[in-house]
Write a structure and sequence with these properties.
The chain is α/β, with parallel strands linked by helices. The protein has eight helices and nine strands.
Length: about 230
């Protein structure tokens, strides 16, 4: 299951995503806020969609219990040798003890010309403790899925519950951090930001907003939503 931004990202490219579809991490957890990819695909196409949901634990939304870090031959047997045109992997890889193995197995399961949608955290609180291992950059995702082309379908940094314009270069990421350095803003003649930073320092002096004022800058929650295509020559 996915969150709202993952759902919106997939929905925006739904015409490029074909059956059969594999969702990695498909279990529906009671009390969680999630969006149903299975329903999205079934309602967005006039043809029958073959949709398979896998997870490490049984439960609602899970068709097969599969560990993506197992040997590929075992996984391939569990999924009847199907090659998928679409694989959805949202908020999963940070919980994999061996994301390289998981990514390698997904690439093997992907049909030529197929698409993997991967959503991973860049800046996020530790969650699912104790099984939360990694954070990712765009280039890190490209290293994991080295056979895929991530330039054909735009990817995004997602922050504060909105889907921003596409961003291809990590150098653009500083636009997302919150900068509290008054001297820097003064040098750059950004006087509005300068006044905000000074006010924060004053608040900090009086013990207010210490979660902000003890730092020079901070990141909001940022996730990466990326689409990788398995081109025919790979």
């Amino acid at each position: 299951m996915g969150d709202r931004l993952q759902f919106k990202a997939v929905e925006s490219q739904i015409q490029k995503l074909k059956s059969p579809v594999l969702e990695v991490g498909s279990k529906i957890y009671e009390g969680g806020v999630s969006f149903n990819f299975r329903n999205l695909f079934q309602s967005s196409t006039n043809s029958k969609v073959e949709f398979v949901g896998i997870d490490m634990l049984p439960g609602e939304g899970v068709d097969r219990v599969v560990n993506l870090c197992d040997d590929f031959d075992k996984i391939d047997q569990q999924l009847n040798g199907v090659r998928f045109n679409t694989i959805i992997c949202g908020s999963v890889l940070e919980h994999c003890s061996n994301p390289f193995k998981a990514a390698e197995n997904m690439m093997k399961m992907l049909a030529s010309g197929g698409v993997i949608f991967v959503s991973v955290p860049f800046a996020f609180q530790i969650h699912g403790y104790p099984d939360d291992y990694f954070r990712f950059t765009p280039n890190g995702v490209k290293v994991l899925f080295h056979e895929l082309d991530f330039e054909q379908i735009p990817g995004h940094f997602c922050s504060n519950d909105h889907l921003p314009e596409e961003i291809h270069d990590l150098k653009e990421l500083p636009n997302y951090w919150i900068d509290f350095r008054a001297a820097k803003h003064k040098r750059e003649k950004k006087f509005g930001l300068f006044l905000e930073a000074v006010l924060l320092k004053i608040f900090g002096f009086f013990g207010l907003f210490r979660s902000f004022t003890k730092h020079n800058y901070a990141f909001p929650v940022i996730t990466l939503n990326l689409f990788g295509v398995k081109t025919e020559n790979k």
